[in-house]
Amino acid sequence: MSRVRVKICGITNPEDALSAVAAGADALGFVFYEKSPRYVAPEAAARICAQVPAFVAKVGLFVDHDETAVRNVLSSVELELLQFHGNETESYCKQFDRPYIKAVRVNTENQIRDALAQYPSAKNLLLDAYVKGVPGGTGQKFDWGLIPVELAHYVILAGGLDPQNVAEAVSMIKPYAVDVSGGVEQAKGIKNQSAVQEFIKEVWRAQNVY
Ligand SMILES: O=C(O)c1ccccc1NCC(=O)[C@H](O)[C@H](O)COP(=O)(O)O
Known about the structure:
The structure is a single chain. The protein is of the alpha/beta class and 210 residues long. It has one domain: Alpha-Beta Barrel (TIM Barrel). It has seven helices and ten strands. The strands form two sheets. Strands 1-2-3-4-5-6-7-8 form an eight-stranded parallel barrel, surrounded by four helices. The protein has a two-stranded antiparallel ribbon with strand order 9-10. Helix 1 (14-23) links the parallel strand 1 and strand 2. Helix 1 runs parallel beside helix 7. The longest helix has 13 residues, at 193-205. The radius of gyration is 16 Å and the shape is globular. It starts with a strand and ends in a 5-residue tail after the last helix. Bound molecules: the ligand O=C(O)c1ccccc1NCC(=O)[C@H](O)[C@H](O)COP(=O)(O)O. Ligand LARABZUK is lined by residues 9-10, 29, 31, 33, 36, 38, 61, 63, 85, 128, 135-139, 158-161, 179-183.
């Protein structure tokens, strides 16, 4: 089994980005959804991303943005991956000539299978909790039992993870990766750097990776 990857989402400043990288993060997420308390302006994200070393993926998050807005971000920010949290279609998601992750807000098991069929070009599906009217970053868990066992290797598990519950999630689900935002924050958009370290250590501990 390969090591479960860790994405730290909702990065808004260079200190949190570099501290997460030093702690072992595999990917950093930048929220370009203006209604989010973790919104980061493209100019600020560009400055942060320019400081991130090689082999750490920078991921841009979007929610039903118009295509021009996504292209504008891509023209100025070094992003390896896109992550879509809205009602974007597959043809919309794949038009940007960049690998993408499709977020699915989980209610039912069939929904995960349906999303797999609907987004064959997605690199991975990110599974998050369904909360009415909120496209992501809610801090809520969903029923992990809804994840079909045979799809776990393809799944980025998100929603309400924190240093206390992530080891259980990794042992139980064995996902491709885990994704956290609120569970390692000291305030919205500001990471608790010790909690980020603890979170990553717990992911590794659950797999005996040191
Ligand atoms: O973080 C946000 O505010 C946000 C807003 C709109 C779409 C997506 C958003 N965040 C996505 C994520 O950060 C991840 O899905 C995250 O791992 C789950 O968040 P959390 O439950 O806080 O760990």
